[in-house]
């Protein structure tokens, strides 16, 4: 039985990847940060008892603690390591640049060192990001497009990308970068713009909220479904040779288009409810990202299954169920 180790196991991508690995018969170990509460909501459905599942184990660890990572990897001796853990919010990285770099950049280096020093070096997947392209010098972006990051997050991810390449070339590790463009789902954190839109729109539809405040509506992104993208991660580690791959849909849409798609689906006029708040603008903006995943299609035989419209409807439907529950609770409280 193959053993997979996943950092960021309680996040959006981590939860979908764990589902995939369990489906394929893996023993899965997830590293989660210690906190005063148990933040396992995205993976609670994967085990009956929160502390026990025959093929899913959670261990405490942190990408800022290299010695702890070494102990975990040497004890488990995983076949595959997926590094999905990060401070993953671009706007927050401007407020917390040092923590972002410590976790996202040096955290990757600590993990690579732990794998290199293990008796049985694992295959390694690094969650790289389209934010590394930043002020993109060409469109669409491919594996050969130069990086021009425009945030502490993007800079940290570029560092991790090159460390992964270096460990592959210097030490012969099976190490891959997945340059994933924006990928969303009903499990996306509510501070990310897509989920913020679907949450607000459904609450507005049910009279629970009046306005939605956003930043730059002109920013264009290549949006796909997270459930599709974790399959590409897994496929990278099943190849004969390690390499780096862009994972994207090849279609780019503005934040404004995403807003319109959601509000139209709910039969609402978005312009009546959306207002611009300067606090949500970034010091340096990434205007236009669009990925060319031709290499992934050819080598990995991977392509996205969920369309943009299907993604929007999936997220909106899921958030409508949450909003409906919120309305029931509100009405119950008001009736007291």
Percent strand? 15-25%
Mean pLDDT: 94
What is the C-alpha radius of gyration, as a whole number of Å?
Answer: 20 Å
Topology pattern, helix = H, strand = E: EHEEHEHHEHEEHEEEHEEHEHH
Give keywords.
2 domains, 336 residues, alpha/beta, 41% helix, seven-stranded parallel sheet, UDP-galactose 4-epimerase, domain 1, two-stranded parallel sheet, Rossmann fold, 13 strands, 10 helices
Please describe what this structure looks like.
By secondary structure, the chain is of the alpha/beta class. The chain folds into 2 domains: 207 residues, NAD(P)-binding Rossmann-like Domain (Rossmann fold), CATH 3.40.50.720; 85 residues, UDP-galactose 4-epimerase, domain 1 (Alpha-Beta Complex), CATH 3.90.25. It has 10 helices and 13 strands. Strands 3-2-1-4-5-6-11 form a 7-stranded parallel β-sheet, sandwiched between helices. The chain has a two-stranded parallel ribbon with strand order 7-10. Strands 8-13 form a two-stranded parallel sheet. Helix 1 links the parallel strand 1 and strand 2. The longest helix has 28 residues. The protein is globular and about 60 Å long.
Summarize, please.
The chain is of the alpha/beta class and 336 residues long.
């Amino acid at each position: 039985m193959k053993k997979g180790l996943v950092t960021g196991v309680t996040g959006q991508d981590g939860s979908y990847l764990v589902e995939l690995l369990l489906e394929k018969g893996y023993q899965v170990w997830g590293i989660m940060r210690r906190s005063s509460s148990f933040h396992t909501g995205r993976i609670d459905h994967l085990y009956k008892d929160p502390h026990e599942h025959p093929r899913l184990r959670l261990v405490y660890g942190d990408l800022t603690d290299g010695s702890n990572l070494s102990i975990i990897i040497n004890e488990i001796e995983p076949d595959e390591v997926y590094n999905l853990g990060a401070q993953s919010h671009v706007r927050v990285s401007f407020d917390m640049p040092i923590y972002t770099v410590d976790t996202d950049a040096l955290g990757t280096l600590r993990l690579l060192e732990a794998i290199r020093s293990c008796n049985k070096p694992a295959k390694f997947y690094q969650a790289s990001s389209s934010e590394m392209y930043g002020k993109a010098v060409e469109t669409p972006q491919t594996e050969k497009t130069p990086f021009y990051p425009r945030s502490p997050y993007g800079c940290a991810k570029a560092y991790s990308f090159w460390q992964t390449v270096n460990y592959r070339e210097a030490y012969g590790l099976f190490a891959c970068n997945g340059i994933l463009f924006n990928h969303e789902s009903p499990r996306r954190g509510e501070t990310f713009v897509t989920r913020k839109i679907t949450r607000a729109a459904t609450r507005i539809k049910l009279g629970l909220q009046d306005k939605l405040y956003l930043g730059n509506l002109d920013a264009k992104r290549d949006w796909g479904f997270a459930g599709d993208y974790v399959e590409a991660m897994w496929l990278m580690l099943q190849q004969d040779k390690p390499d780096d791959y862009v994972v994207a849909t090849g279609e780019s849409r503005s934040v404004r288009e995403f807003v319109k798609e959601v509000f139209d689906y709910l039969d609402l006029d978005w312009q009546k409810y959306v207002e611009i708040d300067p606090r949500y603008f970034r010091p340096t903006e990434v205007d236009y990202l669009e990925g060319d995943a031709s290499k992934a299609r050819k080598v990995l035989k991977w392509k996205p299954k969920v369309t943009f419209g299907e993604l929007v409807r999936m997220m909106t439907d899921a958030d409508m169920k949450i909003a409906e529950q919120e309305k029931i609770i509100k009405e119950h409280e008001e009736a007291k």
